[in-house]
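Example 9 (inverse folding). The structure is encoded as follows.
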């Protein structure tokens, strides 16, 4: 197994599941689609989910090295965003 050693403090960048709607809202704000605190339109949510699915389909070509059952990177992306 390949190990990578980094000098950055991983505690400064928490990992793990995050709220997909929060991430979609942040992205929509950054793209200028909504202002801070505005609700997301369902169309924007649907579009964001489609983009995530497209990204996950690319990840389907790569098996996670730590997976014993052949789970792909795409599978992991879908789990993180609560997608089927």
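The amino acid assigned to each position is listed next.
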């Amino acid at each position: 197994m390949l190990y990578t050693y980094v000098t950055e403090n991983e505690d400064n960048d928490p990992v793990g599941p995050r709220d997909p709607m929060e991430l979609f809202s942040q992205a929509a704000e950054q793209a200028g689609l909504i202002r801070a605190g505005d609700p997301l339109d369902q169309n924007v949510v649907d579009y964001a989910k489609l983009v995530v699915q497209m990204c996950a389909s690319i990840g389907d070509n790569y098996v996670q090295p730590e997976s014993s059952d052949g789970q792909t990177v795409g599978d992991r992306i879908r789990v993180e965003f609560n997608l089927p």
